[in-house]
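User: I've been trying to design a sequence by hand for this structure and keep getting stuck. Would you show me what you'd pick, starting by listing the structure so we're on the same page?

Assistant: Good idea, let's start from the same input. This is the structure you sent:
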């Protein structure tokens, strides 16, 4: 009897100890990521409930399974914020940019073109433009599309008003850009190429064919012209040795825009909307609408200025702060070397050597470049040395292609710090002014090289075309 009582007491104590332990509840939350571009978060699990806020693609959230239904998921995110979101706009992993096609590679068969999602994943001006164009494509009424269609019956004097309405997501995109973004890395960006790699391609065959020009255009987009390679392989650059610039990372190209500088220096750039979309009647392209949904002209500039350095024909270096501003949707054509001075050059365009003889030559820049920080002190004025132009020689197959080569070229060397080592080289090439039916030889192309860390790099290309770009 005593044994039975003792056993009952033991069992009672064991049961009491079990009841006194903390109750462990199985977690009912699951990790998810927003898959829509700009998704409503509602106060209740109802389609017409109040919208608390919006979450963009790839925002991580926690889903409370027990509080969710088949249509709406109860979510928490950030610092304990709560709401409900359509379950079909959530995924179990983050999306990748590689999952979507961009506007450059989009075809009629593309089913994975979602520019708004791409924008929120990696905001940039180009993706803002893509989103604006897509909204125009998908949200403009058929009636307005018909009004804006340019056909044989279109009368310029009766062109319709371009009517647009605010799209909350596009408004948020513009605000994001106006607050400042750092341009994301891009596989299409071409860093300065080594001179030795370019020269190897230039010398690979007598008349560079499609395969060679395709390879060189990957080094720089303006190198698809075989005549440039024929010219470059006949020029000798000065010997390179370590001098003023230690690394390419120090330098921004003359043609760099705020986006490129932002990517290079990890500095934000911003936009400032100026006008809405507008009609344009340009002879070369006809009647068009310039704009991206309700954006037309837009100022683009760095949030914080950097330094722009101009080397004058006299050798004087002039430095000033610059936000590298340009206006999208405006006439930016005045940037070729025919506009090197304060006014447009008249035909025929003059070479650097000829410009140096002009009365105001000391005030004209032969070259400019950007740096994030101030330049180290220089030893007086830079030494600008101009060689006499040489007649270019062509033999065999190359000689028969008169329209694909330059007639003469020259080298201009710039020693910034007077240490006897050249820091910049400008190869200037002439042609016969084919576009203007002129027999006068005039400069048409400039290739700029920079000595960085003791090696020559193709820094930039400046070419003269009809519009001066």
């Amino acid at each position: 009897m005593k044994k039975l009582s003792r056993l009952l007491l033991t069992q009672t104590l064991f049961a009491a100890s079990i009841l006194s332990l903390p109750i462990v509840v199985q977690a009912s939350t699951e990790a998810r990521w927003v898959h829509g571009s700009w998704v409503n978060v509602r106060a209740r699990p109802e389609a017409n409930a109040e919208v608390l806020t919006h979450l963009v693609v790839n925002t991580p959230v926690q889903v409370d399974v027990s509080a969710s239904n088949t249509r709406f998921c109860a979510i928490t995110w950030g610092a304990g914020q709560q709401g409900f979101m359509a379950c079909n706009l959530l995924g179990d992993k983050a999306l990748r940019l590689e999952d979507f096609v961009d506007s450059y590679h989009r075809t009629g068969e593309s089913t994975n073109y979602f520019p708004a999602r791409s924008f929120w994943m990696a905001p940039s001006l180009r993706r803002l433009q893509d989103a604006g164009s897509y909204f125009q494509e998908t949200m403009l009424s058929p009636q307005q599309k018909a009004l804006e269609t340019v056909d044989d019956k279109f009368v310029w004097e009766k062109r319709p008003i371009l009517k647009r309405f605010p799209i909350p997501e596009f408004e948020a995109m513009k605000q994001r850009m106006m607050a400042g973004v750092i341009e994301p890395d891009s596989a299409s960006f071409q860093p300065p190429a080594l001179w030795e790699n370019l020269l190897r391609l230039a010398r690979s065959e007598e008349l560079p064919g499609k395969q060679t020009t395709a390879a060189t255009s990957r080094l720089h987009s303006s190198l698809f012209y075989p005549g440039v390679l024929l010219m470059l392989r006949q020029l000798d650059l000065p010997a390179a040795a370590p001098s003023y610039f230690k690394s390419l990372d120090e330098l921004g190209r003359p043609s760099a825009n705020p986006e490129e500088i932002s990517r290079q220096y990890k500095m934000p750039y911003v936009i400032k909307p100026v006008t809405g979309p507008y009609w344009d009647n340009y002879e070369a392209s006809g009647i068009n609408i310039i704009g991206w949904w309700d954006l037309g002209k837009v100022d683009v500039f760095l949030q914080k200025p950097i330094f722009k350095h101009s080397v004058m024909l006299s050798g004087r270096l002039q430095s000033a702060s610059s936000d590298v501003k340009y206006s999208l949707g405006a006439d930016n054509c005045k940037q070729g070397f025919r506009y090197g001075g304060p006014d447009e050059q008249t035909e025929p365009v003059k070479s650097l050597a000829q410009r140096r003889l002009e009365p105001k030559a000391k005030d004209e820049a032969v070259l400019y470049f950007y740096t994030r920080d101030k330049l180290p002190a220089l030893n007086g004025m830079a030494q600008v040395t101009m060689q006499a132009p040489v007649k270019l020689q062509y033999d065999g197959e190359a000689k028969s292609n008169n329209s694909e080569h330059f007639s003469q070229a020259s080298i201009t060397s710039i020693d910034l710090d007077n240490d006897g080592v050249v820091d910049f080289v400008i190869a200037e090439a002439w042609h016969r002014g084919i576009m203007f039916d002129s027999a006068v030889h005039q400069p048409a192309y400039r290739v700029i090289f920079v000595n960085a860390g003791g090696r020559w790099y193709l820094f930039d290309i400046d070419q003269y075309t009809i519009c001066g770009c």
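That's my pick for every position. To get oriented when you compare it with your attempt: Residues 97-179 form one domain. The longest strand covers residues 442-452.
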